[in-house]
Design goal:
3-stranded antiparallel sheet, globular, disordered N terminus
Length: 258
């Protein structure tokens, strides 16, 4: 055996062997939407791009709300960053809620080796946008999807009006979108439990059937929906939650957000 052959053998990753097989996520996490990223999205007709900053060229005040929100800082959150550096952390899974769009991911995962979620099969993503990644839970996480032809459309609440971009009215989708991440209870292993049951708690509480997530976490105000447009009732996009900012400089904005 030559030296070059020996060297090549030493560099073969120990984790992958001839007996390994790729198991689709659909078999490992059946029915668990959080195990998948939102499909890669094409450019949005009538918009300069997919980023929140692009949406903000018209939706100025909504963008301003979002900038100081917990969602906008969900990736830079120091606690989250500390968690995903632990050896016990399945980083790719945690990121599915903190940067949910496929366009935000440098690598995509659709299967794992031998069904082990700690060994994802990572494939380079040609549509990765590093600037979009920085926006964490950005506008598109809730408001952008691909239609039946694969074209990107905006999911809107049905407020009416003329838009430069295609809109699909689906208020129920937007209301239920919260629970994709905020109503997940799943035990991955003894030291890793993901549990957010806010949706279930609401349905078991005194306001069951009367209120939804939006009623309390996206209070309304009177303002233009778009720059230069007429004033109308509009939901705030601050999501104050427990009132704990992800950065100290955001504290004042969190207070004003509710």
């Amino acid at each position: 055996m030559t030296r070059s052959t020996v060297a090549a053998a030493l560099f073969i990753p120990a984790l992958v062997s001839c007996g390994d097989r790729q198991v689709p996520l659909s078999q490992v996490f059946p029915g668990q939407s959080w195990a998948y990223t939102i499909e890669n999205l094409k450019p949005l007709t009538g918009s300069p791009g997919l980023k929140a900053a692009d949406c903000g060229t018209c939706h100025v005040e909504h963008y301003r709300d979002w900038q100081s929100s917990t969602h906008a800082w969900a990736l830079d959150d120091l606690q989250f960053q500390a968690e995903i550096t632990k050896e016990s952390s399945p980083r790719w899974l945690c990121l599915n809620c903190h940067i949910p769009l496929s366009n935000q991911r440098e690598k995509l995962v659709s299967s794992v080796w031998n069904g082990d979620f700690m060994r994802p099969v990572e494939v380079p993503n040609p549509y990765f946008d590093p600037e979009l990644q920085k926006e964490a839970i950005t506008c598109g996480v809730c408001h952008l999807r691909a239609d039946q032809d694969g074209n990107t459309v905006v999911i809107g609440p049905g407020t009416g009006g003329i838009s430069p971009h295609p809109v699909k009215v689906d208020r129920e989708f937007l209301i239920n979108r919260c629970e994709s991440c905020h109503n997940v209870t799943y035990t991955l292993h003894d030291s890793l439990l993901c549990s957010f049951q806010t949706g279930s708690e609401l349905r078991q509480g005194p306001h069951a059937g009367q209120k939804n997530c939006v009623d309390c976490h996206m209070n309304t105000t009177l303002r233009p929906m778009v720059k230069g447009g007429p004033t109308k009732e509009s939901h705030r996009h601050s999501w104050p939650g427990g009132g704990v900012p992800k950065r100290f400089h955001l504290y004042r904005e969190v207070l004003s957000g509710g």
